[in-house]
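ok, trying the design again with the full structure, not the truncated one.
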């Protein structure tokens, strides 16, 4: 063991070592505090992360471990650990502020494994860029891997900047305040004024559809009148306004609407990564189809 060339056995040991290190961090310092990575810290961390990957790539001939990271013997065990942890995440109840398996996004072993995968992706991408041969093979490969790298890193670091609050708005009363998940009241850069609550019901009286006619005021001077439906949010100045609830005791006569207001400034980068992966998949399909023809 640990004799060159390393195999998947060493790859699984490296992944297992990260799991153990993550458990030690979880026990000693607690879960990952993503709020500490809010802008501009996450931007600095991203720049440092990219620099680290570039340095590892340049030093790969001096340090065999860096060279090993770009092989499938390292990638497959890392993906296996990630799949197992993701399955556990899907089978356990997830809640903000939970501990261990109940808040996997803040669970150190989960975070370290996905950081390791991002490092593997980064080094593989740089190696492929250095040895471009055929656009038919290289373009789909780079689109898929760059897209996954972009989506993975920005979704993780952007989590610190995402804001999700609730606003309870009454008829003809502009509301500038919102409530955070931990119960704090904050002032928003937008105000929502409920003009009319709309409800459609089935024959038995159960809700079929509920929506709100609202007026949106912004500190930048915008004045917007729109309808927000359950599955049709309205976006203004980087905030998405979702219809969330109403006064269930009053039903169709409700004088209030509850809105969930979400800001996720890194989401366009995540979508860019996803679109790149889709484009890579299309390229592979088209090129494969031409070869068969």
């Amino acid at each position: 063991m640990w004799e060159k060339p390393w195999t998947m056995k060493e790859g699984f040991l490296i992944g297992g070592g990260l799991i153990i290190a993550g458990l030690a961090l979880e026990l000693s310092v607690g879960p990952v505090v993503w709020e500490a990575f809010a802008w501009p810290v996450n931007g600095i961390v991203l720049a440092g992360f990219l620099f680290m990957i570039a340095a590892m790539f340049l030093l790969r001939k001096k340090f065999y471990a860096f060279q090993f990271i770009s092989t499938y013997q390292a990638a497959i065990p890392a993906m296996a650990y990630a799949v197992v942890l993701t399955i556990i995440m899907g089978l356990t109840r997830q809640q903000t502020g939970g501990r261990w398996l109940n808040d996997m996004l803040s669970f150190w072993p989960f975070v370290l494994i996905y950081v390791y995968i991002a490092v593997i992706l980064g080094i593989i991408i740089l190696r492929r860029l250095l040895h471009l041969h055929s656009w038919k093979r290289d373009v789909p490969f780079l689109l898929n891997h760059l897209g996954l790298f972009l989506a993975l890193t920005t979704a993780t670091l952007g989590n610190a900047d995402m804001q999700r609050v609730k606003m309870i708005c009454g008829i003809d009363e502009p509301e500038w305040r919102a409530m955070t998940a931990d119960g704090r009241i904050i002032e928003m850069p937008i105000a929502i004024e409920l003009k009319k609550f709309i409800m459609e019901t089935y024959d038995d009286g159960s809700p079929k559809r509920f929506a709100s006619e609202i007026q949106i005021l912004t500190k930048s001077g915008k004045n917007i009148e729109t309808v927000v439906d359950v599955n049709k949010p309205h976006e203004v100045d980087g905030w998405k306004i979702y219809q969330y609830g109403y006064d269930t005791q009053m039903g169709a006569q409700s004088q209030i609407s509850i809105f969930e207001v979400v800001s996720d400034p890194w989401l366009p980068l995540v979508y860019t990564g996803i679109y790149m992966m889709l484009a890579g998949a299309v390229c592979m399909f088209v090129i494969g189809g031409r070869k068969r023809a």
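Keeping the full-length input from now on. The longest strand covers residues 185-201.
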